[in-house]
Amino acid sequence: IDKADIRTVIHTALPGSVEGYYQEIGRAGRDGQPARAILLYSYVDLKLHEFFHRRDYPDPIHLACIFQALSADSLPRAALRDDLGMDPEVFDVAMEKLLVHGGARRDGEGNVCRGGNGWRQPYEQQSAHKLRESQQMLEFADKASGCRMVRLVRHFGDRDDDQPCGICDVCAPQTTAARRVRRLNAAESRLALQVLETLNGREGQTPRQLHERLAAGQKDRRTFERLLEGLAGAGLIEMREDAFSRDGKIIAFWRVYLTEAGRKAGIGAVGTVRLTDVTTAPARKRSRVLVRSRS
Question: Which residues does residue 41 pair with via DSSP β-bridges, in sequence order?
Fold first, then answer.
């Protein structure tokens, strides 16, 4: 779409990646005037992406089965598929992935033969990366843990000046149409102060560690994380992504740190924290509205 005066971009489901989302909302406001991006999503959207991922990235066992059946001599793909008795759709996708990653070779007539042995690791890495993309998109939409534009810029490795945009649903919740914003109640205010005090003693704890220490048995994990997001939205804490490797897979998680404002915060600062409640939209979609403009 090459129109400069698009005022609104609406997603009615979760995009497949943060990169794709950023590119798509960038089609609005190219004339420099204010524009709005609205995202409607639910957790079911992630399941749909996972379904497509299983279709597009078959289990490595299928690729290994084809690889073992290949030899140095070329043979027609259809003959190989029939010999293996594999579902045609699974075979075609697995065969293409094997060709892409060097486990098979194709001649000018479309016949195939065995390629190199090193196809498995790059295939599994690519599969894991593609699956992680949709999970990152859900985390971006679901965690109101700071200015949306700052988080988008950081996702691409550019910290810019880290100045909040002032117009997204986190920076300006009063401008959103599908989120209810409220102040903390007395119990939540006490818990918020405990979070700040705990982090003042030891930063870099994970949301799980903080929940187990401060709220286990009182609030469920997701409700507690909403409180952390409220603290982040008020500029009192910062949630940074971290990761570790296990069994060849990268496991991402979050750590919580105090901001300068959080270190200086007293009981009055908790009054600036707002929690967001999600309304129910049609078609069983839970809604978020992200406001974005260009100036």
Answer: 286
Pairing type for strands 36-41 and 8-11 reads parallel
Q: Looking at per-residue confidence, does 53 or 246 come out higher? A: 53
Encoded tokens for 247: 């069994």
Query: Partners of 224 in the beta sheet?
Result: none
Residue 252, beta-bridge partner list: 243
Chain segment 184-213, per-residue pLDDT in tens: 899 999 999 999 999 999 999 999 999 999
For CA atoms 168, 274, 47, 94, give the dihedral sign.
positive
CB neighbourhood size of 280 (10 A): 10
Residue 27 has φ and ψ, to the nearest 5°, of -75, -10
pLDDT-wise least confident of 99-103, 232-236, 281-285: 281-285
Compute the chain's Rg from CA coordinates. Answer: 24
Collapse the DSSP code of 285 into the 3-class scheme (helix H, G, I; strand E, B; otherwise coil) and give the result: strand
pLDDT tens column, 112-162: 999 999 999 999 999 999 999 998 998 888 777 778 888 888 888 876 667
| Structure tokens that stand for 283 in this block | 């078609």
Q: What three-state secondary structure class fits 278?
A: strand
pLDDT computed for residue 289 by the predictor: 47
Task: Give the number of C-alpha atoms closer than 13 A to the C-alpha of residue 84, restricted to the C-beta side.
Answer: 24
Q: Using CA atoms, how far apart are residues 53 and 43, in angstroms rounded to an integer?
A: 16
Which of 70, 139, 135, 132 lies closest to 106 in space, CA to CA?
70
The span from the first CA to the last CA of the chain, in angstroms, equals 20
Which whole-number Å values give the CA distances from 251 to 58, 190, 236, 244, 246, in the listed order? Answer: 21, 32, 26, 5, 7
> What pTM was computed for the model?
0.66
CB of 95 closer than 8 Å to CB of 87: no
